[in-house]
Design brief:
This protein is mainly beta. 8% of the residues lie in helices and 43% in strands. The protein has one domain (11-74).
Length: 91
């Protein structure tokens, strides 16, 4: 079985420092917003509609894009990086 990739930041670092990412599709800029997904993974998300030209006709398309930080789902809620053997959850 392949070794899991660990995440090099903490949840608190992500929430404090992550900024939206500009995504450009077909020349149209859209901000991918910072997001904690319902799965617990961290990353960015963009959902939008845009118009794309096909020949002389325009069609509307739905854009849905997730940028997920690999290994972020396993980060503990207390902010300690996963896989470093430090920190315990406290109440």
């Amino acid at each position: 079985m392949a070794k899991k990739t660990s995440c090099s930041i903490t949840r608190s670092e992500f929430h404090a420092q992550a900024k939206p990412i500009e995504v450009v599709i077909n020349g149209v800029s859209m901000p991918a917003e910072v997001k904690e997904f319902s799965t617990g993974s961290l990353g960015w998300n963009v959902n939008n509609k845009m118009t794309v030209k096909i020949g002389e006709k325009s069609v509307t398309v739905q854009v849905g894009l997730n940028l997920t930080i690999i290994g972020s789902k396993e980060l503990p809620a207390d902010g300690a990086p996963s896989g470093n053997g430090e920190g315990t959850a406290s109440s």
